[in-house]
Amino acid sequence: MPEEPDAPAYESPEIEDGYCTLAEYKAYRNIPEAVIKDDAVLAALIERASRYIDRQTGQRFVAATAMRQYEPPASSELELEAALQTLSGLVNADGTTIALGDVRLLPLNGEYKTRIRLTADAPGWGGGDGLVEVTGSWGRFAEPPEDIRLACMEIVRAAEARRTGQGSEAVARVTAAGVVITPQDTPKQAMAIIKMYRRLT
């Protein structure tokens, strides 16, 4: 009797910029790791809840890598319009790469940086019609704060309850795309956290 082929190895669904992991949520809900039948749905709900939190607070709670351009300043300090977590590349307006060791990120002890100061050894910001290019990881938060993780898990819990027909504080909004999360659908604990961060914007 021919042997049956081995079943493909299980791969956990990916979550893009989620504010909790699938493993964290399953632990929060006491769902055994071996129970995987709803993993794809839970991963989608985590991602959707995370983007809902973004919209409600006007903030992102994970850093994103990007290059930003600035007019060269007249002084030794470049003011940044966005919060910088880490600096990975710096090019002045003349196209000269500035060594990362020739700059200081300020404030020194801040959770994120808002200014770049050149040291005496740096070549300068350059001039003419060129722009300064700053590449790095941007965002007020390097990773989601614990209360944002909790808010995300509570929103997913409520959405999961609606999907399975269980009672919850929420009111279901169902479309062809599935459950749509709205302020009326959000558990009170999660909304209180969201409102706290909304006031910070």
Helix-strand sequence:
HHEEEEEHEEH
Strand order across the largest sheet: 1-5-2-4-3
Task: Assess the beta-strand content as a share of residues.
Answer: 15-25%
Major sheet: 5 strands, antiparallel
**Classification by helices and strands:** alpha+beta
User: What is the averaged pLDDT score?
Assistant: 88
Helical content stands at: 25-40%
For the record, give the distance between the C-alpha atoms at the N and C termini, rounded to a whole number.
67 Å
Low-confidence stretches: 170-176
Shape: elongated
Tally the helices: what do you get? Answer: 4
The Rg value, from CA coordinates, equals 23 Å
Compute the number of structural domains: 2
Strand tally is 7
Can you characterise this structure?
With 201 residues, this protein is an alpha+beta fold. The protein folds into two domains: 22-59 and 144-198; 64-138, no CATH class. Helices cover 27% and strands 21% of the residues. The chain contains four helices and seven strands; from the N terminus they run ααβββββαββα. A hairpin with a 2-residue loop joins strand 6 (174-175) and strand 7. Helix 2 packs across helix 3 (146-163) and helix 3 packs antiparallel against helix 4 (188-198). The longest helix has 19 residues, at 39-57. Residues 170-176 have low confidence and may be disordered.
Give a topology summary:
Blueprint (H helix, E strand, L loop, with lengths): L21 H7 L10 H19 L6 E7 L6 E15 L11 E4 L6 E6 L13 E7 L7 H18 L10 E2 L2 E2 L8 H11 L3
Antiparallel strand pairs: 1-5, 2-4, 2-5, 3-4, 6-7
Helix pairs in contact: 2-3, 3-4
